[in-house]
Amino acid sequence: MLSLAHGALRFLGSxxxxxxxxxxxxxxxxxxxxxxxxxxxxxxxxxxxxxxQVRLFDEQGQLLEERLLPGSMDCTEWARFVAAVLATxxxxxxxxxxxxQHAMRAVPIQxxxxxxxxPVPAREDSxxxxxxxxxxxxxxxxxxxxxxxxxxxxxxxPHGPFGGQLIxxxxxxxxxxxxxxxxxxxxxxxxxxGDGALGSEALKLDLGAALLFGLLSLSGKGYPESFSxxxxxxxxxxxxxxxxxFAPAWSTWAQLGASFWLKAQEAQVLAGATxxxxxxxxxxxxxxxxxxxxxxxx
Length: 298
Description:
Elements: E1 2-5, E2 8-11, H1 20-30, H2 32-35, E3 41-48, E4 51-58, E5 63-70, H3 75-93, H4 98-102, E6 128-140, E7 145-156, E8 162-171, E9 174-178, E10 181-199, E11 203-221, E12 228-247, E13 250-261, E14 266-271, E15 274-279, E16 283-296
Antiparallel strand pairs: 1-2, 1-3, 3-4, 4-5, 6-7, 6-16, 7-8, 8-10, 9-10, 10-11, 11-12, 12-13, 13-16, 14-15
């Protein structure tokens, strides 16, 4: 928060982007009269996932004007846009009677002669969404490796750390040697689950669990006669995901996960009167690197 009073530009708290000096310099260049206005006005700047919220109050704490500046900019551009908005508002409010007409609601504004605390950011009342795509490497219980991928969609309520997730994923083909040939196998799955978040908006740790509805595909190779089949394969997945929010709407993340497949699945080969069987590994460990687009639902 910053205040414009008798030519002074004073921050409450320590907002860094834009900072006081940058906004003051841009405002003086645009309209020196706005900075030197005899009226006391308070300005609150709130960084949000979808932009920068600017609010203007009178000295009683009544909201006079507000505007969301959407997008993502560097600090110099933010300072220029904020200064332009403030200059316009100060010009409009110089008209007699306009301040009273635009007073909307009272909010507590704490002032003191000493250091003043940073204002508590307003909590958004919008649900939050996420769409992400990741590339994974998966290690099965028997030591075989395969690349794979995940597509996820998340939805979380406005308050609280918990949310829901829908996951669509799969792994590449792996092989089991059985008798004189091999059996190729791979899994595709749909996951329904939830996660809980720890940390800040910039750096966050998600802990999640999901029910997995898998499809196990099997096919023989190298036998006189080979067959293919697909079977339902249910499971449970757990994951820990670290996210870094490098832009208002974008995050990159790394996830460690484990999948436990609940149904014993076997591949069987008949060689004359002899039957060879091998169990499909019931555990997968994975590392996934991904990118997500996220924001509030308007």
